[in-house]
Amino acid sequence: MTTQHSKDKVKRGKRILMVLDGFYPFDIRVEKEAASLISAGFEVTVVCYRNKGQSKEEEHKGIKIVRTDRIIGVPQKGIADIVRSAFGINYLLAPLVKLQVGEADALHAHDLPVFKTAFSIGKKHGLPVVLDLHENFPEGILTWFTWRKEPLVRLKNRLFFNYKSWLAKEKYAVEKADRIIAVVDEMRERVIRLHGVAAEKFVIVSNTEPKDLYDSHQLPTSAVQTKNIVYVGSIGPHRGLDTAIEAMPAILGHDPKVRLIIVGSGNPDTIAHLKNLANNFGVSSQVEFTGQLPYEEALQRMVGAFLNIIPHHSNGQNESTIPHKLFQIFLSGYPMMVSSCAPLKRIVGDNGAGVVFEAGNPHDFSEKVMGALENRDALKEMTKKGKELVAEGGYDWASDADRLVNMYHKLAH
To answer: How far is CA 212 from CA 180, 209, 391, in A?
Structure first.
């Protein structure tokens, strides 16, 4: 007969409270991690904001979701960001964490902005706290808001989102965290170099995808004949789309049939900046902004591309993170060109799995595109190597999920 005591003993170390500075379901990384932990026998609760049409509590794919009482819009989030930047605590999420922490065996802070909230509460209850570094936050704030024009937004960012203060917050977090999750080796090496954190604290859980990601989708199987260069993803100053646009005049001089398709959403100031750039370079008719598309439509744009691009600028943020899109393109089996940011160059360039151009260099971008147009057979070989990296090289979600689960098993003992 199983007693209540034995049930509690079995569950000890198995209940994880994730704290998310955003809405859920929304974040693909959070969902993959939570789903993998549940499959391994853990219980997962996600604390997050409530959006319009969402309930305060629900279960989604086995994940318990607890949201704020209030619906959180831009004004509420902005005020919370200011308070959090000044004092370290997210006053919108802290009450929820306090209510749920009694049912937890560990706290999982999804990125730097919510770490102190999770840590201050978790440590009062004697619980381990894991820091999951999605981004290089101190470096990211130097670029994310570059093209924003609203005076109040610029003032807020200057006062509360500055590099030195967030670097200090990062140092505090990595020193206090029981374990640190990084998405790439470059992030781990950066944190160790800057903050002197022991390497043993780290586990790499990258933004890879399951090998069967596209099994339920009908992807085109014939050779791609379009001359579309396609970007799919969020749009911001750090993404390098300005480099792609500035390269278009030279590319069109070589082949006027090439088009640049930009799929995704971004701040209106950012979109306006890029559209103005396309107009100034005389390529507006060859550069299409589709906005956010349904998953299937975005997928069709991606798999029907002559080149899928990840043209990231070289900066502290991009030199120590990796996008999900990289592995999605590998699995699609279609050609890819990336910038020379260290993680991209290491994974794509060093394995011959795609074209690499010098980050921020429109001339090199155009030269590499024109070379690819003339040698599609080489592109086909590169795509094969990309799929092999996922199939045999460990660049798949099962490998990353194993590292995540093993980390939590060790943390429980």
So the answer is: 28, 8, 10
**Helix (H) and strand (E) counts in the chain:** 17, 14
Element (H, E) at 352: none
Architecture of domain 7-208+397-411: 3-Layer(aba) Sandwich (3.40)
- In words, the CATH class of domain 228-392 is alpha beta
Q: What is the pLDDT of residues 317-363, one digit of tens each?
A: 999 999 999 999 998 888 999 999 999 999 999 999 999 999 999 99
Q: pTM for this structure?
A: 0.90
- Kindly report each contact of residues 75-81 with a partner whose C-beta sits within 8 Å and lies 24 or more positions away, as own/partner: 77/49, 78/156, 81/113, 81/156, 81/160
CA 272/CA 292 separation, integer angstroms: 15
* DSSP label at residue 7: H
Alpha-carbon distance of 119 to 130, in angstroms, equals: 9
Place of tokens 């206090």: 176
